[in-house]
Amino acid sequence: MTLQRAYAEALDAADPLASLRAEFHIPDRAARGAYFCGHSLGLQPKSAAAQVAVELESWARLAVDGHFDSARPWLSCHERLAAPLARLVGAEPLEVVAMNTLTVNLHLMLASFYRPTRERHKILIERRAFSSDRYAVASQIRLHGFDPRTSLLEIGPRESESIVRTQDVCELIERESRQLAVALLPGVQFLTGQLFDMEEIAGAARRNGCIVGFDLAHAAGATPLRLHDWDADFAVWCSYKYLNAGPGSIAGCFVHARHAHAFDLPRLAGWWGHEKTSRFAMPQEFRPLAGAEGWQLSNPPILSLAPLFASLELFDRATLPVLRSKSVRLTGYLESLLRERTSGDLSIITPADPQARGCQLSLGLHRTPNEARAVFDALTRRGFIGDWREPDVIRIAPVPLYNRYVEVWDFVAALCEELRS
After folding, report:
1. Which pTM does this prediction carry?
2. Active-site residue, selected from the candidate residues 114, 130, 315, 402
């Protein structure tokens, strides 16, 4: 029965989140297939345009007075995002802020929390970390006068495996504890879709006196998070993937409450991080705000921030536990169809355990690189929008906010045709 399209249609009919799909614009190119690329750029909420229009109208009508007299006064606009972002990442409102972009926020966090000494100077990253993270970490190491060849510590899968074992991460932290300054790992690995055990890793780092931070680019909005309870020192994320706030939209940052009043902690300062009562007096001495807001540099880009209101309203409406439940079922259904219908044609390199993966499945095609790329291009022509990674990996992300079970069925049917043509 699961192999029949009617089964997928029945799942969609019983889906409590089915109505949310109508809240998004579906791109023309995906009309004949499906959009499975939310791990790169989420779809536009239909209400995003109205949110931006509110700010454009305030700008046109009020100009500079919009900072104080608009429907959402720009002076405090970002503060309204603290509570919904805190709910999304399992934090207190004091611990989160919408600001900058992901890599800028990562540099700001490392500027404060990477304080290397001759004895303790290493930063642990994942061997296949996203390039921007690697560049940021290596440049921070050099900035402090150390050499990435000796101060950059990497963890990867064991030989012939594709997934990083939590045990190996924790053992490496323990083994390198005397030299390890910071552990910086992804929430979800961008290539494989592996969901890291952040609670276990954070615990190992804290026990060994190590700062721990997470890049949540592929986890925020896709998986349940409890950053405060896990005792992470910091985390950063973007909002243009699963948070659907638009290309290059404002990013997010978490700083644990135990650092909220650590005003002597070194940081790169900007006027918007200065305490509010004297900010416009522009004193020469910088006095940071308590909490994550104290790491702000400049007043937030209002037109970039506005679409995030639209998206977070949908997350609050759906609730993350319900979204996660559907996500597990969507990827599980995709996995079962692939295993039943494509045996020998591909490998699923994402963990089989639903609790150990995010919203995506990464498929390694058993073809030459050129043949594998031809399959991906054929699927794209048919309207199935996924993501290609060299040399032979297709990343498919069924997003619970807007993807349907029948789209998963149609994708697997099309993939089987292309693999055998």
Report:
1. 0.96
2. 130
